[in-house]
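Q: Convert this sequence to structure tokens.
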Amino acid sequence: MCGIFGYLNFATPKKRHEIIEILLQGLRRMEYRGYDSAGIAIDSSNDLKHPFDQIAVLRKVGKVDVLDAYIHDREDLDNDMIYQFHCGIAHTRWATHG
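A:
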């Protein structure tokens, strides 16, 4: 079983840390659907001609809190950058066998 959450932002300025918090909140609300691992993928470009040239994929084994701590420890994400347009996806995974 798993949970998938998407977020699309069009022409509404948001800082990267706000976008990440929205994705993490979505994961927390559906964590019961999977608690073995979690991850998010967010676009990293503010270029309207090539908005999806760079995608940041952040994932961790464990609960959403483990992913949250990992993301907040990263210094390369430029959390204060403002995005006019944005697309992000988040997932939780529950490993099943058989």
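The helical segments are 16-29, 64-73.
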